[in-house]
């Protein structure tokens, strides 16, 4: 027994906790079940925390493995944990029996009165329940000793309804009907393990404290890939590998964290780590899961692990006559899942990897040989033949190389990369040039498949040989191309690539192109990025390399846009012309996708949407997954901007799923989801995704998406009223964008948001200065809708300066112009701002009319969070415009300060909470006193808490200026 641990809800378990709470309150009993490490205890802890927060008594019984052999140990621990008052009313025999139980739980006592002991424990629990609701949590029923189980069953049978019970159990991996005997007998005993957890009791089986019905049992499922990513962020582990960690762990949180920590401890650069390390805790956990399997089951599992498409029939043909029974036993142990057609899937990817790793070469070779004889696909057959031997063979290597072409035509880029490397490694060493050429091909094949681990293996082998500069550069560029957003640890590769390409213009053009990407993403330096792109384009053009020239001009156009150059569109048109003639394989970093992005930045949203929709089907059929992700990112952003909220969410979620599956950095996908959730989902989820995106981008050293994710977060903080948080976040965006030399205000529209945050913080002059700075730039570049956003913020500055009528007119005009551009969410925001201005003018009807108009706009768009925001506003408007409407005379910043002071905060406390100086608080408080005509904190509290203050004879009805 230990004290109850109170924790917040575990990642991804909110719905399960709701179900658990309903089950406990309707049935009084619940069982949490699932494999070891899936998070059952964490869910129980969260349920206990919720119960304690409601004022319930929580008893937490957590018997340990050693307790299983101590008769009465669990029952004694339970009694020892209850308040002494619960024992006061026990009759003498029952008190004596309970006392003996507590004193001598470690050794049997023949003097116990079993009847008195049963009645005593039942009465203790009833006494507790009579004082209020009680939740008893039994964490891991496997370790409850038989005597205690018997006592608890009796006591719970007599317990009143106010005593609810939550049992946590881990099912035994193999039941009595397992084909190799019961656990602890026969082959199981020879394996030295009797359950999924070696620390389990005598038979590893959970103890039933009551006869559960189907409704009592709740399975704790594995986490989804996005939830694994959130879990990694929560534990401050790198989130880039979330997709592959999810596959490796099967969604098991304990295994996922072990893999994540193995990655962190390995000191391997994240972009090299697609082949997850089999080390430390992760490997130990996988071995513990595999340990109970006897040799026949392990043999069947090994064949399944080595096959590309394992089925029970394939395993049987490969030499396991009882394959179905062996795999069924493994399924009961939670190691694999079997479909109706016999397909075999390991529940966690680390299981087959560990199994293969721990199997000797001879057994692996024999298994590959057996599989090569029975598979029906020539590609699979040659793969198994190559893996069955460690002797290089040119004939075999040529067969594998030919299979690469076949697999590539099928669209299986990952298998093509594996086979390309296998072909190179199967090439005899004396054929040095041929082996080097195949290694270079393998590195590039791995880059196309986004398999950094294979690219690094191929490059390392090639660079250790006497390769030509061209092959060395090809290998290094392949590694760079698989790094994704994470380019901060690769400086040495760039240096060597530059050296090797010195006398080769085509190679130097390719290297300079990669440097252009690095300078903007990792270095945050668009000036250097543009210079590298210009040099790359010139070199590529000089040797007639249209493909590289088009990509370099595209990068140049991107930097021209960032830097506010009017040449951006001309350069982009040149890139498009070359691209049309070159017919590139993909769209990632291509001119056609940048053309779409420019249309998005300019709010030519219909054009952007139509272009994406024309490309997407073709890319999904024939292009790499990165291209599909890029198009989905863009389409989600377009739909969110257009106010097509449901479509934006759909595209954003799909892009995240593909990102995690591909093992790419989730930072960009989380940013896109933050935008989509802000438009049509939930402000809370939007903030969560934005924070995750910021952390992932910081991990990657990605300056571009760090600014974007912070912008998304600051925007949500602003609209939800966290002005101090929004101000801090948006100032970080401003600092980052200025450090990167960004000029064009249309690419990330933080200026209008920061201006509104400054205004809400009562920094009107600073807000006006910011708007005055950005306006001429937007005017020069023709960024019409940027100017509209600035107009919305400037109108609120006018209102804060006492020019409410002028402000209202500008907001009406700006809302209409936003609507004309199809920017319905921006239109709605203008209407909300208009309602606030009208409220402060004490024009109640006009304020309500503006809010109703905003609600209609948001409802048509499906903008759920904005609709919820507006739905609250009429009540607030009603409250502050009733009677004299005292608070309506204050700015929002003044209202926040007034409420704090009215609730007892000192000037120093208010200054700290609002991130202001004490002098600013004092000056603002003086204005509040003047506007409300109060002379003390007590009078201010009266106004805030009970209604309007009495007006002095000198106050006029229309004297509001703020």
List the helices and strands and how they pair.
Blueprint: H1 14-27, E1 29-33, H2 40-53, E2 57-61, H3 73-81, H4 92-103, H5 114-130, E3 134-139, H6 146-157, E4 163-169, H7 187-191, E5 217-219, H8 225-234, H9 242-249, H10 253-266, H11 280-290, H12 295-306, H13 312-317, H14 323-332, E6 336-338, E7 344-346, H15 350-358, H16 361-374, H17 378-387, H18 394-410, H19 413-425, H20 432-448, H21 452-463, H22 469-481, H23 491-500, H24 505-521, H25 526-542, H26 546-562, H27 568-582, H28 591-601, H29 605-622, H30 625-642, H31 645-662, H32 667-680, H33 683-700, H34 703-719, H35 723-739, H36 750-760, H37 764-781, H38 784-800, H39 804-820, H40 824-840, H41 844-861, H42 864-881, H43 892-902, H44 907-914, H45 918-932, H46 937-946
Parallel strand pairs: 1-4, 1-5, 2-3, 3-4
Antiparallel strand pairs: 6-7
Helix pairs in contact: 3-4, 3-6, 4-5, 5-6, 8-9, 9-10, 9-31, 10-11, 11-15, 12-14, 12-15, 16-17, 17-18, 18-19, 19-20, 20-21, 20-22, 21-22, 22-23, 22-24, 23-24, 24-25, 24-26, 25-26, 26-27, 27-28, 28-29, 28-30, 29-30, 30-31, 30-32, 31-32, 32-33, 32-34, 33-34, 34-35, 34-36, 35-36, 36-37, 36-38, ...
């Amino acid at each position: 027994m230990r004290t109850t641990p109170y924790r917040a809800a575990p990642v991804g378990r909110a719905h399960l906790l709701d179900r658990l709470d309903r089950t406990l309150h309707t049935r009084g009993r619940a069982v949490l079940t699932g494999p070891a490490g899936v998070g059952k205890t964490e869910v129980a802890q969260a349920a206990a925390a919720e119960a304690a927060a409601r004022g319930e008594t929580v008893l937490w019984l957590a018997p340990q493995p050693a307790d299983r052999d101590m008769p009465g140990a669990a029952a004694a621990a339970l009694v020892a944990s209850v308040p002494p008052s619960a024992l006061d009313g026990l009759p003498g025999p029952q008190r004596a029996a309970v006392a003996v139980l507590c004193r001598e739980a470690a050794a049997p006592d023949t003097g116990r009165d079993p009847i008195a002991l049963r009645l005593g424990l039942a009465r203790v629990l009833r006494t507790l329940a009579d004082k209020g609701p009680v939740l008893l949590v039994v964490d891991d029923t496997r370790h409850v000793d038989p005597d205690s189980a018997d006592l608890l069953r009796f006591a719970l049978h007599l317990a009143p309804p106010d005593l609810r019970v939550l049992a946590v159990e881990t099912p035994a991996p193999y039941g009595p009907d397992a084909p190799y005997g019961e656990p602890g007998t026969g082959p199981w005993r020879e394996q030295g393990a009797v359950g999924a957890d070696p620390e389990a009791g005598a038979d590893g089986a959970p103890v039933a404290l009551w006869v559960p019905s189907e409704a009592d049992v709740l399975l704790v499922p594995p986490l989804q890939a996005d939830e694994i990513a959130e879990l990694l962020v929560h534990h401050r582990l790198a989130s880039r590998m979330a997709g592959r960690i999810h596959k490796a762990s099967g969604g098991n949180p304990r295994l996922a964290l072990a893999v994540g920590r193995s990655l962190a401890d390995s000191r391997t650069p994240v972009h090299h780590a697609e082949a997850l390390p089999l080390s430390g805790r992760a490997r130990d956990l996988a071995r513990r899961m595999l340990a109970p399997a006897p040799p026949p089951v392990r043999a069947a599992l090994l064949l399944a692990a080595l096959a590309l498409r394992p089925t029970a029939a394939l395993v049987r043909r490969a030499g396991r006559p009882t394959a179905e029974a062996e795999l069924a036993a493994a399924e009961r142990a939670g190691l694999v899942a079997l479909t109706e057609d016999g397909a075999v899937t390991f529940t966690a990817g680390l299981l087959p990897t560990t199994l293969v790793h721990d199997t000797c070469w001879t057994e692996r070779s024999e298994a590959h040989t057996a599989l090569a004889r029975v598979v029906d696909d020539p590609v699979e057959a040659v793969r198994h033949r190559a893996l069955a031997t460690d002797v290089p063979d040119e004939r075999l290597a040529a067969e594998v190389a030919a299979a690469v072409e076949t697999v590539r035509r099928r669209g299986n880029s990952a298998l093509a990369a594996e086979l390309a490397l296998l072909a190179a490694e199967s090439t005899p060493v004396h054929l040095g040039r041929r082996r080097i050429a195949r290694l270079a091909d393998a590195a590039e094949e791995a880059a196309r498949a986004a398999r950094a681990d294979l690219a690094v293996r191929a490059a390392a082998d090639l660079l250790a040989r006497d390769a030509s500069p061209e092959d060395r550069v090809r290998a290094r560029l392949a590694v760079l191309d698989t790094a994704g957003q994470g380019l901060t640890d690769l400086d040495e590769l760039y240096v060597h690539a530059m050296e090797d390409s010195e006398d080769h213009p085509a190679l130097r053009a390719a290297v300079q192109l990669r440097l252009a990407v690095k300078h903007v993403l990792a270095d945050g330096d668009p000036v250097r990025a543009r210079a590298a792109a210009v040099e790359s384009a010139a070199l590529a053009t000089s040797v007639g390399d249209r493909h590289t020239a088009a990509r370099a001009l595209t990068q140049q156009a991107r930097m021209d846009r960032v830097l506010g150059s009017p040449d951006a569109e001309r350069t982009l048109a040149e890139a498009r012309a070359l691209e049309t003639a070159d017919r590139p394989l993909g769209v990632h970093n291509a001119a056609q996708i940048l053309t779409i992005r420019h249309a998005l930045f300019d709010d030519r949203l219909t054009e952007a949407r139509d272009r994406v929709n024309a490309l997407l089907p073709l890319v999904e059929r024939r292009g790499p997954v990165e291209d599909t992700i890029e198009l989905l990112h863009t389409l989600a952003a377009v739909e969110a901007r257009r106010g097509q909220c449901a479509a934006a969410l759909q595209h954003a979620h799909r892009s995240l799923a593909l990102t995690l599956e591909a093992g790419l950095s989730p930072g960009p996908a989380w940013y896109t989801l933050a935008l989509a959730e802000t438009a049509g989902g939930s402000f809370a989820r939007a903030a969560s995704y934005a924070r995750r995106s910021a952390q992932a981008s910081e991990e990657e050293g990605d300056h571009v998406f760090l600014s974007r994710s912070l912008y998304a977060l600051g925007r949500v903080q602003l609209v939800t009223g966290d002005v101090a948080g929004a101000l801090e976040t948006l100032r970080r965006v401003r600092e980052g964008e200025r450090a990167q030399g960004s000029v064009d205000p249309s690419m990330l529209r933080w200026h209008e948001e920061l201006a509104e945050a400054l205004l809400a913080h009562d920094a009107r002059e600073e807000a006006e200065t910011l708007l005055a700075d950005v306006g001429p730039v937007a005017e020069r570049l023709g960024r019409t809708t940027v100017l509209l956003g600035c107009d919305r913020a400037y109108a609120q500055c006018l209102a804060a300066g006492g020019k409410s009528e002028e402000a209202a007119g500008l907001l009406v005009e700006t809302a209409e112009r936003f609507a004309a551009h199809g920017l319905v969410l921006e239109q709605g925001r203008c209407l909300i701002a208009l309602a606030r201005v009208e409220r402060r003018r004490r024009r109640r009807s006009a304020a309500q009319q503006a809010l109703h108009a905003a609600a209609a706009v948001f409802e048509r768009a499906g903008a759920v969070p904005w609709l919820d925001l507006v739905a609250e506003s009429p009540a607030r408007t009603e409250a502050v415009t009733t009677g004299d409407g005292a608070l309506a005379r204050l700015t929002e910043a003044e209202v926040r300060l007034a409420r704090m002071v009215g609730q007892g905060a000192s000037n120093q406390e208010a200054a700290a909470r609002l991130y202001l100086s004490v002098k600013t608080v004092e000056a603002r408080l003086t204005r509040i006193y003047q506007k409300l005509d109060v002379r003390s904190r007590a009078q201010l509290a009266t106004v805030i808490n009970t209604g309007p203050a009495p007006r002095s004879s000198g106050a006029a009805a229309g004297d509001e200026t703020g």
